[in-house]
Structures are given as C-alpha cells and as structure tokens.
C-alpha cells in the first residue's frame, strides 16, 4: 500500500457494477474505502475483499432512495470512518419508458436516486472538505447526461441534472481547493441491464466493463492536486450502442 499519503474515499452504489470495481481499484491503489449501498451482504463481501488488499474498508448499508436520511447519515459515516478525501457518487438506477408513459412516482424515484441523493451526499461531505481546503468529488453521470435517447426520458433528465450539479459545484468550490469531476460513460456491462426498470436489448459484450470505468475514475482521483478533469466522456470502442 502506498503510505506516502493516506486517502479515504466514500463510494456509493459500491456493492456491484461500477461502484464495486471502483472500490477494489481504490483499494489496490492504497485508498481506504467507506462503502455505501442498500445490499448489506454484497457490500460486506466487497469490504472483505478490499480489506484483503491491505486497506481499511467498511460497509455502511444505506438506502439512498430515502432522501431525507441521506445527508445526516453520510455525515455520520464520514465522522466514523475518517475524513473523506474522495467522494464518488455512483449510486443510481436505469429506467426506460417514454415521457408520456412514465408515472410520476417512477419519475420521482429516478430523480431522487440518480440526482438528489448525490446532492445530499455532497452536502454531507462538503463541510469537511472545505475545512481542510481540499477534496475530490467524482459524479458518475452517463453519455445520457450529454445526449438524449428516446425512451430514456427520466434517466436522461436525471443525468443532465447531475451534469449541471457537477458544473455548478466545480465553479463554486474551486476557490476552496475542491475538485469536481463528472464521468460520462457510454454503455457499461453492469447488473443495471437485468433490472425490471430497464427494457433494452443491446450487445453487452460490446459495452465497457466496470473495471475500465473504475480505472478512469482512479486516474482522475490520483491527478496532482493542481490538476482536474472536470468532464470525461468514456465510450466503448464500438460507439453508442
């Protein structure tokens, strides 16, 4: 483990997919990881594997869809685990359906998890970063945050909103020594495609892997403090699927 500088990261959606891959990539790089997700068993398995790589790793089961609980619980996690240097807002859900056919309850659920939970995680961590005059916040957006796709309305709106949040936050917090990055991957082969809220038939073998995205996030986090990638679009070599 690299002991020259001890870093602590908080990663949401860390029990599977991109979040799990980020947790393990960070652990291999010597970054201690606080892992947040709904699934306690899966989260603890990831924490155990990260610990075996030589870092401190702790599972914190939390339903980020319960918006009113997110900010105080994220603050409590940071207080328990240690000062968070890197926040990776990765938790989210996929959703397909036309704008006309999307029920209000579904719309709100997508916006709450994909956008508002990230906003609340940021508010939970930001005061500590400001107090130290440093920190890195990485929001996992999507190609759907810069390009619309018919039948993905609620999802696109949530990711466009996340992009606006990232850009605004970057402008506001630059003077406080805090870096903000929005990562926009194209299609990634994750369990999202197996959920009952997504109806899409793509060639998953042609997609990015979670590990490829995780390496990009790691390299972004490890940039010298005077450098920042504020927006990164990462696409499969096959293009938009």
UniProtKB/TrEMBL annotation:
GO MF annotations, alphabetized: oxidoreductase activity, acting on the CH-OH group of donors, NAD or NADP as acceptor
Protein name: Short chain dehydrogenase
Species: Microseira wollei NIES-4236
Record has Cytoplasm as a keyword: no
Keyword Oxidoreductase belongs to the record: yes
UniProt record similarity statement: Belongs to the short-chain dehydrogenases/reductases (SDR) family.
PROSITE patterns: ADH_SHORT (PS00061)
Superkingdom as given in the UniProt entry: Bacteria
Pfam families: adh_short
